[in-house]
Amino acid sequence: MNQREKEQRAARRFLILVAFLIVVLIAVIYLLFFRIRDISLDMAYDKTSSIFGIGKMTQENGRAESFASDLCVSAVDVPLEGFEAPAESAALFNEAEHEVIYAKELHAKRYPASITKIMTTLVALKYGNLDEMVTVGEECKNIEFGSSVCEIHVGDHFTLRQLVYGLMINSGNDAAMTIAVHIAGSVEKFVEMMNQEAADIGASGTHFVNPHGLQDENHYTTAYDIYLMFHEALKYEEFRDIIGQHTYYAEYTDAAGEEKGVMWESTNHYFINEAVPPSDVMVSGGKTGTTDEAGACLCLYSQNKYGDPFISIILKSESKDTLYEEMNELLSKSNN
Predict the structure, then answer these.
(1) Does the keyword Protease apply (predicted)?
(2) 114 included as an active-site residue
(3) Is 332 a catalytic residue?
(4) Options 49, 89, 171, 302, the catalytic residue
(5) Which position among 114, 266, 312, 317 bears the catalytic label?
């Protein structure tokens, strides 16, 4: 074989190798394209996949999987044999099993009333220093006359911790406004933080316009978004302590420098002997909310007879009396 033939054979081998590499490259691109397409389809919102892009679930049991494995997830209502809540939205979540036990109108738009204060507290815990002293400003007056207040006044000096306790236990709208200005410099900027936090935890059906929950048609959420907020807040030990208090006594200094004290009582009827939970169910705390438009609302953290944690939510019940009757029926299902 002469030199020319050797060069021709080497050239043919090179061309064959180049052709082979091109075929392999095309195959890899093809596979990657359809793999990405399949992933995109798997993450689409439907009855058997993730909700709001949060992990994957099954319609049959509403059990979360993937990176949302610590959440209860359901894209659809979940019936419960022998039970139908009269309230417009209701839900029961088994936090131990990450399972939605019951869900009615889980993703419907609702007004949250003072349940809003769960998010107000979450933002305060995340970005504030609870030991800081706070001087109450004029913002404490900018609330609806006759609404729930802690009876704080301009010039009073409280710690942020005290104000957060008053916010959640006594549902003080004046405390909400004071906390907002202290954390963010203005109520408007604090509300932006609330909305950003809602987006960060996947509460995509929520929009806030104030830190207290007094009625505004642009201030809304869903039962599921409330679950997401409450679930996130429960990660804070201080939050779990706050919602478990039946009363709270705060010592403070008024504008004149005089030392005073105030007692705040829980708005949770389970904590003030106006409602009794089912036997073998322990109510650990929660948040109430009531306006004419929102109806009577309640979000609770509880344990069943086995010690398993549950979150239960009822929105827009007809009255406070029916609210606690409905909640007791819902709580009793946690022992099934």
Answers:
(1) yes
(2) yes
(3) no
(4) 171
(5) 114
